[in-house]
User: Fold these one by one.
Assistant:
Number 1:
Amino acid sequence: MGRLWVMLEARRILIIQLRQVGDVLLTTPVLRVLRAYYPESHMAFLTEEISAPLLMNNPYLDRVIVRPRHSSWREELALIRHIRRERYDLVLDFFRNPRSGWITLLSGARYRVARYHPWRAFFYNITPKMDRGKRYAVLDKLELLKAIHLEGSLTPPRLEVPDAARAYIKEFLAAQGISEQDLVITMSPTGRRQNRKWPLEKYARLADQLAEAYGAKIIFLWGPGEKDEVSAILQRCTRSHILACPTDLLQLAALLDR
């Protein structure tokens, strides 16, 4: 791969994607490209608490910096001071909101990169204008790298699931009488937006139909504050299904990987 001479000075790189969980995961293909161009550089990732576990075992990163979701101004200033002390040469802001913009601007980095936005361009000094058409988010992130002359192919997002998470899920499945040969279907019926949710009865009917048609074991997923809603669906089912065990993000990934 070719390099721009200016990129040879990027010995310390910071990637910013504060949230959401899915967007953080979809940034991981970018890390592979950056590491291919900068095998010896220190590479850090700034994200919020909920998403940090997704990155902790990523082989391309040297460090994950965690920012509290609802930080006070004192905490925010402490974070900025810390980032300035790290002396990053290159900051790539994939989140691109005012807060991440200020962090980028005050980082002291020589190269500050984000997609162009008319009201936020002053935070950065490399702001490519990119196609705003709807496409796979990873392609948008890879497109931003072209502004600093980095080319990378599309690869799947990368998530390293630790053995402890897999063991936790294996124990749960065994307790439910689920074997390796069983067909397992997970259902995630909850969500923040009501206009994207089915009525509870339809989830119950679908679960019953899948179990009857395919002999599948149906596991209903839930997160913080969602257990009662999922339990209400199970009560509407005519067949017996399974309520998932409590999981963190990595344990959930282990369950889905089953």
Note: The radius of gyration is 22 Å.
Number 2:
Amino acid sequence: MLLVAAVVTSSLAVATPARAAAPSLELPFVCGTSWEGNSGDSNAHRNKEIDFNMVGTSGNGDKGKPVLAAAAGTVRWEGGENSDYGNYVEIDHGDGYSTLYAHLDQKSVGVGDTVHQGELIGTVGNTDGNTSGLSAHLHFEFRNRGSGQSYPDYIRAASFHGDPFDYATGKETFVSQNCGTQAPPTMPGVSSVSRADGSIDVFAATSDYRLKHRNFSAGKWSCWATLPGNAKIKGDPAAVVSDNGSRIDVFAQGIDNRLKKLTWIAGQQWYDWADLGTYTITSSPAVTMRYDTGFDVFARNAANKIVYRHFSIASGWVN
């Protein structure tokens, strides 16, 4: 007897791993400002890099303009003025995607910092470790390091607010829609001062132990900026204005329970955090101006007593 076996074949559907979604990028500049991107005029460009300049400026006319995070993420890489990119930061957005911001004049964030979309990360500059006389601009790259490709192949075409950059012509002008809240992480404590009529400076100690700052003047709010220094702080900061509005001092309790101070002087950058002694404080500080060139700082110590220090701009700490 001949037996015929019926062979039944079936098609098995093999699931394809989902491709990680790329972040939605916004133009890395202040909401409402116009910037021209250029991808073709630089001999240094090797793939889909974009150089940005503010519309209506030339030379170094846009040097110092704020640079904002195009998407939320964590700073994973940075370099200084002598690197091939000059001052730069690269923000990791997850799933292998990152954005690079190069030739910055100043950096406002460092490795390990978490940033929100629209948060200040630096300013437009012309720093470069290989070239002198470079005109100010922002060099921008949208990268997919998770692709398995090498540089520059992992540089991807960028879109801003859903509008793809015109790589065919190599030029396109955008109006920034980077208009989010630009708020830092949850803020346990906030302090504010006014150094002039119509001006407000707000300071916030965030849940990641950093101090954030933004200013209101000329009818507009600046972006949140992370102030410099490696000190980690907690609780409520306390700020005071002195010397006819030309100086701001911010005091805070460190996570090591020591008193910290950060100072701004008009015409200069913020100074680094100063540690004001080895004694322990168990509360957030309070500060008041005794006269225009001197102020008092109060805090509770380990013995549950209120202690204070007096500062004179002419003489320094008096006690």
Note: Residues 185 and 206 are 6 Å apart (CA to CA).
